[in-house]
Amino acid sequence: MKTSNSSHYLLTSTVSKLFNAQLHFFHFLTYILVLAFGVTIGIISSFYLQNCSFSLNFTQLSLSALPRTPPLPPPIAKQEVLLLNLNHTHVALKEFLKPPSVMHDMDDEELLWRASMSAKIPEYPFDRVPKVAFMFLTRGPVFMAPLWEKFFKGHEGYYSVYVHSNPSYNGSHPESPVFHGRRIPSKEVQWGKVNMIEAERRLLANALLDFSNQRFVLLSESCIPLFNFSTVYSYLINSTQNYVMAYDEPSAVGRGRYNFQMLPEITLKQWRKGSQWFEMCRDLALEVVSDRKYFPLFQEYCKGSCYADEHYLPTFVSIKFWEGNSNRSLTWVDWSRGGPHPAKFLRSEVTVEVLQRMRSGRCLYNENSTRACFMFARKFLPSTLSRLLKIAPMVMHF
Fold first, then answer.
1. Side-chain half-sphere of 171: how many Cα atoms within 13 Å?
2. Cα dihedral 346→348→354→355 (10° resolution)
3. Which of 168, 118, 163 is nearest to 142 (CA)?
4. How much is the pLDDT for 81?
5. Of 190, 218, 187, nearest to 204 (Cα)?
6. pLDDT at 145 over 70
7. Contacts of 77 (CB under 8 A, 6+ apart)
8. FRET partner for 100 with CA separation of 20 to 30 A, picked from 133, 152, 209, 351?
9. What is the pLDDT of residue 14?
10. 166-178, pLDDT tens digit by residue?
11. Distance (Å, rounded) from C-alpha 398 to C-alpha 227?
């Protein structure tokens, strides 16, 4: 019995020792794992912090490399608004619609840019009387001014007058009331040169600044009206077409003036010729002053025997706006005597019969046949003025 108890004790002691040894080994292993985990975390954290420090230093270096820019000045608009508020000024629609003085200080680039603006809403939010812009391209004074005075008399508010004269003209000739103060900032113009088209665009641009101008007619100092104002105004305002003469002339004075360097924008097949004395609606006038594709080609390549005033508008309109063009001019001229220029009328040649013949023809107006094909005529010398003033009441009825 004693031997049996001793064996049981030895077995129990041995098992206890083995259990304690395993427990110590487990604790040691756990310690080693925790230590290894801590070391790993430390290494990873140290590496991450080093990267952050490098990135921060790199960012600071990059930012320091950027150029330093001075602070922006305050917007000019704020200063202008402040001045307006100080002066208690309010810009009403009436002030916005008021056209600037014809003697403004805009250069051509500024003028064309402003004139090219157009409203997208077709309905006008104000009462408007449509006007006809009479644009005179002259060398000096409008020596037919007394006749035009009689033509315009009593119709104020239905027309506007603009005069582009040679800058060398000093205005020594007395101006009549209708033409007084109507000269626009002008530049030199030479016959057949592209600067003549520049002058026409300048006239159109100035006239477009008045929102009431709806029809635009180009005239010279030698032009006269063939009908009274009421007839001319109704004819133009109610017309559904533009009046830019354009035709294909296969000879040397037509296609022979074409420059192949205008390809591909303008082809020989598209090249047209016509009279420079046009009449057009506001929409087409806007397109003319806004043209930056075709006109530069004429500035560069239409030189020498190429007369830009005879080809630019006929070609431009025929390419883009042929559907709304009548392909005829409203200004009567006499080419029967031949030569590069139409015939000039002397005083002795001005008769009732001659004027009646100019007033009577056969053409289409708004798709209907009419005998009134020309509203104006040229070239009348200054000596014809007295006789025209005498005949006008009988023939033109003004």
1. 11
2. 70
3. 163
4. 43
5. 218
6. yes
7. none
8. 152
9. 53
10. 998 877 677 889 9
11. 8
What one-letter code names the amino acid at 317?
A: V
Q: Is 374 within 8 Å of 231 (Cβ atoms)?
A: no
Give the model's pLDDT for residue 341. 84
Say if residue 337's pLDDT is above 70: yes
Task: Please answer whether residues 122 and 204 qualify as being in contact, where contact means their C-beta atoms are separated by less than 8 angstroms.
Answer: no
Which residues fall within 8 angstroms of residue 285, CB to CB, at 6 or more apart? 204, 207, 208, 216
Is the pLDDT score of 15 beyond 90? no
d(CA 244, CA 205): 18
Contact 138, 165 (CB under 8 A): yes
CB-neighbour burial class of residue 259 (10 A; exposed 0-12, middle 13-18, buried 19+): middle
Res 37: pLDDT: 66
User: Distance between CA atoms of 281 and 214, rounded to whole angstroms?
Assistant: 6
- What angle, rounded to 10 degrees, do the helices at 195-208 and 108-115 form? 50
- Dist CA 327 CA 215 (whole Å): 17
Q: What is the pLDDT of residue 74?
A: 62
pTM of the model: 0.79
> Position of tokens 């200004």?
331
For 336, the token pair is: 């029967």
SS3 of the chain: CHHHHHHHHHHHHHHHHHHHHHHHHHHHHHHHHHHHHHHHHHHHHHHHHHHHHHHHHHHHHHHHHCCCCCCCCCCHHHHHHHHHHHHCCCCCHHHHHCCCCCCCCCCHHHHHHHHCCCCCCCCCCCCCCCEEEEEEECCCCCCCHHHHHHHHCCCCCCEEEEEECCCCCCCCCCCCCCCCCCECCCCCCCCCCCHHHHHHHHHHHHHHCCCCEEEEEEEECCCEECCCHHHHHHHHHCCCCEECCCECCCCCCCHHHCCHHHCCCCCHHHCCECCCCCEEEHHHHHHHHHCCCCHHHHHHHCCCCCCHHHHHHHHHHHHHCHHHECCCCCEECCCCCCCCCCCCECHHHCCHHHHHHHHCCCEEECCEEECCCCCEECCECHHHHHHHHHHHHHHCCC
Residue 374 tokens read as 């020309």
- At residue 32, what is the residue type? I
